[in-house]
Amino acid sequence: MAEDGSLEEIRKKRLQEMQQSQSQQKQQEMQQQRDYVLMQLLQPDAKARLARIALVKPEKARMVEDIILQAARSGALREKVDEHYLKGLLEKVADQEEKTTVVIKRRTFFDDEDDEDFSDL
What we know:
Layout: H1 2-41, H2 44-56, H3 58-74, H4 83-96
Helix pairs in contact: 1-3, 2-3, 3-4
C-alpha cells in the first residue's frame, strides 16, 4: 500500500513537470513568433534602437512592441517602422507613464528670542 502511494506521488510529480515543460515550450514558441513578426515590421535602425531600449527598460520596450504589433494587426502600418516613427511611439509611451514627483516638506523652526541663547558661552 505504501508503495502505491509513493508511486502515485511520483506519477503526479512527473505529470506536473511535463506540463510545466510544455508550458515553457509554448511560451518560447510564442516569443519566437513575436520576434519574427517584429523583425519583418522594423527597419534595421529602429530594430537596433528598440534592442538598446530593451536592455535598459524591458517593460518600456515591450509596450512599444505591443503598440507596433497592434498597429500591424489593425492594418494601420503601411510600411516598415523607421527610427523616426519609433521615437514618436517612445514619446507617446513616456507621456503615458506615470510621472513620479517627490515633495519634501521641511519643518521650520521659528527663531524666537525666548529660546536659549548659547552664543554668550
